[in-house]
Design brief:
It contains five helices and nine strands; from the N terminus they run βββαββαβαββαβα. A hairpin with a 2-residue loop joins strand 2 (30-31) and strand 3 (34-35). The protein is an alpha/beta fold.
C-alpha cells in the first residue's frame, strides 16, 4: 500500500538536545546500519512526509534549522521552527531522534487526525499546527495545551514503541535486543 502524501505537513526531528546522559550526539548513533537521524527520517517518509527538518545541528546534514539560543528545550526549538516555516505548512509532525522503535503506522494515525494530537501519557510524537505558540510556552506539555491537542489512546501493543533511549546502558540493551531479534526492526 502506498502511503498518503502529506505535502501540507513537515516532519520535524528533534536533534538539538545536549545528549549529556548518552555522552555523545544521539542523532549520530548507528541504528540498523545508519545514523539514527536517518532512521527517523525514513520513518517520517514512510508515513508520507516529504519535507523533513532537523531541529538542531547534525554534522553533515543539510536540512538543519538551528535555534538562535540552543538547548532551551523542545518547545522553544519548535517555536523557532514554526517561525521559520510559517506559511509554508499547515502542520508539523514532531518526533524525537531517540525513539527508533516508533512505527510509520503510529505516525500515520497522528497524521490522520488533521488536528493537533499526541498519544496519551507521551507528549512526543505530536502533530502540531504551524502557528506560533505564546511566548510563555516553555515545555512540550504546555505547547500541547496551547494548541488544544487531543490525547489519543495508545494501543497497548504499541507501548514498547514509545521508549526513548537516553543512556549508553539503554542503547546497549536496544542493540542487544536487535541482535537477538534479527531483522524485526528493519
Amino acid at each position: 500500500m502506498t502511503p498518503t502524501h502529506h505535502d501540507d505537513t513537515a516532519g520535524i526531528i528533534l536533534v538539538g538536545g545536549r545528549s549529556s546522559r548518552m555522552g555523545q550526539n544521539k542523532a549520530l548513533l548507528t541504528y540498523n546500519g545508519q545514523p539514527l537521524y536517518l532512521h527517523m527520517s525514513g520513518l517520517l517518509r514512510q508515513a508520507g512526509l516529504t519535507t523533513l527538518v532537523l531541529a538542531g545541528d547534525v554534522p553533515g546534514a543539510d536540512n538543519c534549522l538551528c535555534e538562535p539560543l540552543p538547548h532551551q528545550g523542545p518547545a522553544r526549538a519548535l517555536a523557532h521552527i514554526i517561525d521559520q516555516l510559517q506559511g509554508r505548512f499547515r502542520s508539523l509532525l514532531v518526533v524525537p531522534v531517540d525513539m527508533p522503535l516508533l512505527t510509520p503506522a503510529l505516525l500515520s494515525a497522528l497524521l490522520s487526525q488533521h488536528r493537533p494530537c499526541y498519544y496519551a501519557q507521551h507528549p512526543l510524537p505530536a502533530l502540531l499546527t504551524c502557528e506560533p505558540p505564546p511566548q510563555d510556552v516553555t515545555s512540550m506539555r504546555a505547547l500541547l495545551v496551547a494548541q488544544q491537542a487531543q490525547a489519543l489512546p495508545l494501543p497497548v501493543q504499541a507501548n514498547p514503541c514509545m521508549q526513548n533511549f537516553n543512556t549508553p546502558e539503554e542503547w546497549a540493551r536496544l542493540q542487544a535486543d536487535l541482535g537477538d531479534q534479527g531483522s524485526e526492526h528493519s
